[in-house]
Amino acid sequence: MKAGIKAVLIYIVYFIFMLLVQPFFELIGQYSLLIDIFFMVIIAFTFLTEFFSGTIVKYMIEFSKSLFIIFYFVASLNSGIIDISMENVSIIVNLRFFLLMLVLINLIGMAKTVLSAINFLHEKSEKE
């Protein structure tokens, strides 16, 4: 029940996000499929994480989620360089620093997940 509610809340956030970016859709039109894929995968990870809470599988899913986010942003942001062309104007945006921060934050999240899994197994072995 709790997993389903969290997944529905994330879908509502996705729906509101799509309504807010509707005026800018011609600028991000090429990225709309990537945005859809990202939100659907995050919804699935959220549901699975909550569904398997209290087990070691939860930590494996959280680790996979962080790994997915790293690879997703590296692939979708073309390693940090975005080139947008409209009519006679070409804009090149360098997002490498932003991408580096995203990767580092997710690496810290992965380390936290591994340490949490070790703590979970330690507490479980102490109870037995």
Your description of this structure?
The chain has 128 residues and is mainly alpha-helical. It has helices at residues 2-20, 25-28, 32-51, 56-76, 96-127; strands at 81-86, 89-94. Strands 1-2 form a two-stranded antiparallel ribbon. Strand 1 and strand 2 (89-94) form a beta hairpin. The relative contact order is 0.10. The model has no long low-confidence stretch (mean pLDDT 85).
Total strand count, please? 2
Q: Give the tally of structural domains.
A: 2
Low-pLDDT stretches: none
Spatial sequence of strands, sheet with the most strands: 1-2
Q: What spatial form do the alpha-carbon principal axes imply?
A: elongated
Approximate helicity band: over 70%
Biggest β-sheet description: 2 strands, antiparallel
How much β-strand is present in the residues?
Answer: 5-15%
- Compute the average pLDDT: 85
Count of DSSP H/I helices: 5
Radius of gyration: 18 Å
- The structural class is mainly alpha
How many angstroms separate the termini? 29 Å
Keywords:
mainly alpha; 5 helices; 9% strand; 75% helix; 128 residues; two-stranded antiparallel ribbon
Short description:
The chain is mostly helical. It has five helices and two strands.
SSE layout:
Layout: H1 2-20, H2 25-28, H3 32-51, H4 56-76, E1 81-86, E2 89-94, H5 96-127
Antiparallel strand pairs: 1-2
Helix pairs in contact: 1-3, 3-4, 4-5
